[in-house]
Amino acid sequence: MLDETGLDAAEVTAKAKNPSEIQKESPAIDTAEQIKEQIEQNDDLREILADIAGEKTAEEPEDIQAAIIDKLYEGIKPDESTVTAREPDQYKRVLGLDKVPLLSSSRVLDVGSGNANIKASDFDLPEENIVRIDMSPQNPDVQEGNVLDIPFDDERFDEAWATFVLKYVDHRLPSEVVSRLQSAIQISGSHIGAYTLVDNYSTFQGIKAVSELLRVVKPGGRVRVASYLYDFEQGETLKNILDGVLSGRIPGLTITGTEVQSSSSDPQGKEANIFLEKGKGYNQDKFNEYVVQEFQRLVPRGLAQAILQPAVSK
Fold this sequence. Notes:
This protein is 42% helix and 13% strand. By secondary structure, it is an alpha/beta fold. The protein has two domains: 9-53, no CATH class; 61-313, 3-Layer(aba) Sandwich (Rossmann fold). Strands 3-2-1-4-5-7-6 form a seven-stranded mixed beta sheet. The chain is globular and about 55 Å long.
C-alpha cells in the first residue's frame, strides 16, 4: 500500500531512520517551480508578494497615474458652456485678494482661466508676472494646460490660483471619462460599483490637481482655491487632504481661508475659498507619496490596468 509519499508503507518504516532517503526516492516534484507557476498565474498573489519583498513593478505608480490620466482624457475637451467669463472684481473677492493681497513682485499661475476678462494690471502686477492656462483656451493670452499635469517647472510661482476649477476634477467628471471608467469595470470583472469607482477616481484627481498646484509654487508660497461652498462640501478632495495634514502624513502644509461676501442670495450660490500654504517642513516628495498611497487605495490595480487597455477608449 502506497502512502502520500508514493512509497510502500513498510519501506517507509524501514527507512524512517534516514529521512533523506525517503526524500531522495519521492516522486520528482519541483515544489519551487510549482509555486512559481502558481504565482505567475495569479496577478493578485504576485502583486502581494512583490509588495512584501519591496520589489517594484514594471511601471512606477506615478507613471501609471500619468498614463491613466492621458487615456481617460484622450480627445476630450471641456464643454465650452462650462467656461464662464469672470471679471477682476469677482476674482479678487472669491480668492480673498481683498483681504490677503499679493506682493507687487508676486509671480502667479492662474489655472482654468477660460475666457476670464482679466489682465496683470488688475492685480497691480507686471504683465509677465501672471501666466494663465486652461484645457480649452478661449483667449489668445491663455496657454493650453491641464491642472492634472501643469506644464511648468517646480517652484516657479509665488501663488497658484484655481477658481471654479477643482469641482471639474473632484466630482463633475466629463461624461466620456465616466463611460471609460465604467468600461474598465466590465473589462476587469471587478465587483466595485460604477458610482464608487467614479467617486474614488474623482477624489484621486482632486488630490493630484492640488499636488500639481503645490508643486509649481515656491516654498512659503500659496495655492488659492475658490469655488461654491456646495462644491467643497460635495467633493472629497479637501476633506481627504485635511485628514492627511491632521494625521501628519502631509507635513508643513497649512490650510486657511477668508470669508467671502457672496454675490448670490441662493444658498447653493454661496462662494468660498481655501488657501494651502507651503510652510516650514513642507516636502513635495512627501505629498507625492501621499498621492500614490491614495491612488492605490482608491483605484485598485486591476482596474488601473483595465483603464489602460485600448478597449476603454471605444
